[in-house]
Amino acid sequence: MCGIIGVIGERNATPILVEGLKRLEYRGYDSAGIAVLQGETMQLARVKGKLVHLETYLAESPCTGPVGIGHTRWATHGPPTQENAHPHTPPRRAVVHNGNNENYQHPRHMLQEEGVVFQSATDTEVVPHLIERALQQGLTAADAVRAAVRQLEGAFALGILICGVANMLFAVRRGSPLLIGLGEGENFIASDAAPLVPYTRRMVFLQDNDLAVLRRGNVTVTDIEGQIVR
Ligand code: GLU
User: Fold this and answer.
1) Which of 73, 83, 103, 178 to probe ligand 1 with, by most ligand atoms within 8 A of CB?
2) Is residue 88 within 6 Å of ligand 1 at its C-beta?
3) Ligand 1 proximity of 121 Cβ (cutoff 6 Å)
4) What's the mean pLDDT when you consider all of the chain?
5) How many CB atoms lie within 10 A of CB 35?
6) Is it the case that residue 226 has pLDDT exceeding 90?
7) Helix 141-149 vs helix 126-136: crossing angle, to nearest 10
8) How far is CA 90 from each of CA 4, 35, 124, 144, rounded to the nearest angstrom?
9) Which has the closest alpha carbon to 124: 160, 92, 154, 86?
10) Which of 67, 101, 112, 198 is the most buried (most CB within 10 A)?
């Protein structure tokens, strides 16, 4: 299980994501990436190897926007390649994932039978496709995330961006740590406290099956059925 960082605010997310990933480097990783939303535009940067490669990539192809998620991956399903690096974005939903999705083969086969073409070998990529499927069925963004998570088994933490709801960042945990950092006019998610310390000392540890919806000015935490828990 490796590193997750996310932010929703007003300033450019990219430096916060890259600095946050550096503070998670001590955990070890084999690839890294970020996704940043600017209105309806999802920008993606992913590399195999170290964060210095991500910084080089971003110097040539900058990502700019007030909402973003980042990840350092330690591969469990699929080799450490750029295609398997997170976030997974097919193409208007972005997901970063720590942990394992133990039953991913089942939804993967179902989605493939429905015509979905997978770009990676990971157990993660089913998640954005399950969210997409639920959105197509007419669910709200938060309900689509809940519907997807109900189909997962294993220990995981997820950070999720959805194009079209650029004013929200979603975070879910089950068995893998995930924290909310409460800032002034900006809020954060992270898989441990280290990347949050420069921005806030006010942190909330999510419990299993919590879904947090972060907006710039507030955070709501519900359970997987949608009941507000805090
Ligand atoms: N199981 C996921 C993968 O292999 C996430 C691994 C991690 O925790 O970094 O891509």
Assistant:
1) 73
2) no
3) no
4) 96
5) 31
6) no
7) 130
8) 19, 12, 11, 15
9) 86
10) 67
Pair 176, 99: CB distance under 8 Å: yes
If DSSP codes are grouped into helix, strand and coil, which group holds residue 179?
strand
Question: Residue 46 — very low, low, confident or very high, per pLDDT cuts 50/70/90?
Answer: very high
Backbone angles phi, psi at 3, to 5 degrees: -110, 140
* Residue in 46, 69, 97, 119 to alter for ligand 1 test, most ligand atoms within 8 A of Cβ: 97
Question: Does 128 contact ligand 1 (Cβ within 6 A)?
Answer: no
Tokens representing residue 188 in the block: 């954060």
pLDDT tens digits, 164-195: 888 899 999 999 999 999 999 999 999 999 99
Residue reference for tokens 């999720």: 160
Per-residue tokens: 147: 């519907």
Q: Can you say how many angstroms the Cα of residue 66 is from the centroid of all Cα atoms in its chain?
A: 15
Q: Quick one: pLDDT at residue 1?
A: 63
Ligand 1 lined by 98 (C-beta under 6 Å): yes
Substitution site in 48, 81, 98, 153 for ligand 1 pocket (most atoms within 8 Å of beta carbon): 98
